[in-house]
Design brief:
This protein is an alpha+beta fold. The chain folds into 2 domains: 131 residues, Purple acid phosphatase-like, N-terminal (Immunoglobulin-like), CATH 2.60.40.380; 219 residues, Alkaline phosphatase D (PhoD) (Purple Acid Phosphatase, chain A, domain 2), CATH 3.60.21. The protein contains 9 helices and 19 strands. The strands form 5 sheets. A 7-stranded mixed sheet has the order 10-11-12-13-15-14-16, with helices on one face. A hairpin with a 3-residue loop joins strand 17 and strand 18. It is globular, with a radius of gyration of 23 Å. InterPro entries: Metallo-depent_PP-like, PhoD-like_MPP, PhoD-like_sf, PhoD_N, Phospholipid_Metab_Enz. Keywords: Membrane, Transmembrane, Transmembrane helix. This is PhoD-like phosphatase metallophosphatase domain-containing protein.
């Protein structure tokens, strides 16, 4: 086995198993034991698989020093048990390598699984174990569901090192699987570089995502689709890097002269064809709510879909994003449509968009007021508070609840639910009165 084999090997697990994984360090000269430096994480859950991740760094013989020798690989093994006590015969086990060139990170793609717990451990020292992670798979497509710029590998690894030591993030990663977007790259990137050319390898290495496994011949592809039972399809796009044409990289002003060219693309032909095929298949397979949820990083309402949703009778579309650094909730209507779309009733809407603000820009309230004045379909905008939003989707409704933090100068839980939006099944518009007429935080 080569030391990179672990990145290529999708290990097969036994179906319907409670899964606890032990990671054993195989003895190498002058080394003893492992240190799990960044807890555990999981991500990209499908109906029978999920990616689990950890970082296991070898220690020196005296156990006090981390070994970061670029020439020294580490052989690890894992075992899968049906028992939460790790008793009995393991149902699956194997070995793999990790090394300095992937920052000692370890990924295992477990398949044939139900919800499970997982843990990594050093089998040469049973006292050296990682925290226990909790993850789950999603329902099969046939089932109904019940309700700093990063410049180089070294630089982005340091950046992610810092993020992964955040206490709250450590707990969040260990408690549930994450589906990450296309933000692990430099700002304003495109297919041939960025404002400062970056290395995409760390984003793949440090993320508990199966995107690197999506296409073995295309390591930069992260666009993928999750069929969440008969309830909805979640489609994750890459609108920032993969095959994107030249964008604003601050020092190349020519982009302003070609931005409106019809042959310019933010996704490229391969991803566009996959996207349209995925939308068509989502509609054809008969989701009970006819939901199509798209996660990406641009303001989708500015794009021209050429009537695709109407022609294919796609009845409910929700766009998720966060790149605008503001909270927005909007009906989606054709640009400058004052005939078929009614801001008062929502009639004529072809979808909804929900944008979240992890960070906030300066003069946010003024920006929001200007945007609202120019967009009749924008129903709510708020960019003064940092926070997050949640989506709760069942066969009857989609609920989007936004949460705002009162104070971000120190770690605290002093927050509140600022607003809630509802979309009823097959109505394809925000329920009126918008937000039930109750808004606790707003710029407009």
């Amino acid at each position: 086995m080569s030391m990179n084999t672990w990145r290529e090997d999708r290990q097969q697990m036994q179906p319907n198993s409670t899964m606890l994984i032990t990671l054993a360090f195989m003895h190498l000269t002058s080394l003893t034991g492992l240190t799990f430096t960044y807890s555990v994480a999981s991500g990209d859950p499908f109906d029978s698989s999920v990616i689990i991740w950890t970082r296991a760094v070898p220690k020196s013989l005296d156990g006090t020093t981390l070994i970061l020798d670029q020439c020294l690989p580490a052989c690890v093994s894992y075992r899968v048990y049906t028992s939460s006590m790790l008793s009995g015969k393991p149902v699956s086990s194997d070995e793999a390598f990790t090394s300095y060139d992937v920052d000692w990170t370890v990924k295992v793609d477990g398949t044939g699984l139900k919800p499970y717990l997982f843990q990594f451990a050093d089998c040469t020292n049973v006292q050296t174990v990682s925290p226990v992670g909790t993850t789950r798979t999603i329902a099969t497509a046939a089932k109904h569901v019940n309700g700093g710029e990063p410049l180089t590998f070294a630089v982005i690894s340091i950046w992610l090192n810092q993020y992964r030591t955040d206490a709250s993030l450590v707990v969040a990663h260990a408690k549930a699987p994450w589906i990450t977007d296309d933000h692990e790259v430099a700002d304003n990137a495109w297919k041939a570089g960025s404002a400062n050319s970056n290395d995409s390898a760390s984003g793949c290495t440090w993320s508990p995502s199966g995107a690197c496994f999506t296409d073995r011949n295309d390591k930069l592809r992260i666009w993928r689709n999750f069929k969440i039972g008969k309830l909805l399809d979640l489609t994750v796009l890459d609108t920032r890097v993969y095959d994107r044409d030249l964008t604003d990289v601050y020092y190349i002003t020519v982009v302003n002269t070609i931005a409106a060219f019809p042959n310019c693309s933010i996704m490229g032909l391969a991803q566009e064809k996959w996207f349209y095929d995925t939308i068509s298949h989502s509609q054809a397979r008969g989701c009970v709510t006819e939901n199509a949820v798209y996660s990406q990083q641009i303001v989708f309402s500015q794009l021209n879909f050429g009537g695709f949703f109407d022609l294919n009778t796609i009845k409910k579309t929700v766009i998720l994003s966060g790149d605008s650094h503001a909270n927005w909730v909007s009906d989606l209507a054709h640009p400058n449509d004052t005939i078929t779309y009614s801001p008062k009733t929502g009639a004529g809407s072809i979808g909804q968009s929900a944008f979240g603000a992890g960070i906030t820009p300066a003069a946010a309230d003024n920006i929001s007021q200007q945007l609202a004045a120019m967009n009749s379909d924008l129903q709510w905008s708020e960019a003064s508070f940092r926070g997050f939003f949640t989506l709760t989707i069942d066969s009857e409704t989609l609920n989007a609840t936004y949460y705002a933090m009162n104070n971000i100068s120190f770690a605290n839980l002093d927050g509140f639910a600022s607003v809630n939006f509802v979309v009823r099944n097959r109505e394809n518009k925000l329920l009126r009165p918008v937000a039930g007429g109750i808004v606790k935080a707003k710029d407009v």
